[in-house]
Write a structure and sequence with these properties.
CATH superfamily of one domain: NAD(P)-binding Rossmann-like Domain
Strand order of the largest sheet: 5-4-3-6-7
Shape: elongated
Structural class: alpha/beta
Mean pLDDT: 95
Strand content: 5-15%
Number of helices: 7
CATH architecture of one domain: 3-Layer(aba) Sandwich
Order of helices and strands: EHEHHHHEHEEEHE
CATH topology of one domain: Rossmann fold
Oligomer: single chain
Distance between the termini: 27 Å
Length: 258
């Protein structure tokens, strides 16, 4: 779908005639077009994803501020999005950005700049904010438990870096699970898009459930880490009855989307 319905078509090349031949492959596709240099095309691609990463880190910071001062992030992000200069896209708080593009591209832009003697402090802050989200989620889990993680049973809903995919590359959820296991928790996870995980991802001690209900059985806490819409439809009252204590952390702000 994306190939046939792009938001824009950008071709970078050393020679204009080469770029025009490549651009002709998109004949019949209605989208703004730009022929430019290779370096410009690279920066456009990296900067686009760096900007999206910035929006995600920004709204996560605002969500944490809201939690600290007693404001409602659902209303705050709605009010922000009504401003036409801002809009609603990429204003969903959660555990941080992941996947195969955003983390890689913002780091590439940072490294490219550093190699030429410029330190992009703002982009580094966006990246560090995202890194800090792992510690933020772990802190919230420990705070809800009221005890160290050693010997606890933690249920996780969601493994992929976003809903509606089977991709766990650079997933913040995977990093959080690794940290939980490292600190002595027994972790059971379910994701409708993931049927198996490999040991090379450091998840050899993870128990992968076949149904969402399995993560609640005897759990000290269940954390929603990926905002799969079907998780809303679970019988939450009944499932909380399967837990040792009804502690649920909606780190993906799934129910804030309603």
């Amino acid at each position: 779908y994306d190939f046939m319905h792009p938001s824009r078509i950008i071709v970078g090349a050393k020679k204009k005639e080469v770029a025009e031949k490549v651009m002709s492959l998109y004949e019949g596709i209605d989208a703004p077009r730009l022929i430019t240099s290779i370096q410009n095309a690279i920066v456009i691609k990296y900067a686009s994803n760096a900007f999206l990463a910035t929006r995600i880190s920004f709204i996560n910071e605002i969500a944490n501020i809201c939690e600290a001062i007693g404001a409602d992030i659902a209303d705050v992000k709605k009010g922000l999005g009504y401003d036409p200069r801002i809009g609603h896209h990429y204003l969903q708080p959660g555990i941080g950005y992941g996947g195969p593009c955003l983390p890689k591209d913002i780091l590439a832009l940072i490294r490219m700049s550093e190699q030429k003697g410029y330190y992009p402090q703002f982009l580094e802050a966006v990246h560090q904010k995202n890194e800090h989200q792992v510690r933020t989620v772990i802190f919230k889990i420990k705070n809800l438990l009221g005890r160290p993680l050693t010997g606890t049973k933690i249920g996780i809903l969601g493994l992929t870096f976003k809903p509606e995919t089977d991709d766990i590359r650079n997933s913040m959820t995977v990093r959080i699970i690794r940290r939980l296991i490292k600190e002595g928790a027994e972790v059971t996870a379910y994701d409708p898009g993931v049927k198996r995980v490999t040991e090379r991802r450091g998840l050899s001690k993870l128990r992968l459930a076949q149904a969402p209900e399995d993560v609640f059985e005897g759990a000290d806490l269940v954390a929603i880490l990926t905002a799969w819409p079907q998780f809303r439809k679970l019988d939450w009252d009944a499932l909380k009855g399967k837990m040792k204590a009804p502690r649920v952390l909606d780190a993906a702000y799934l129910f804030q989307e309603e």
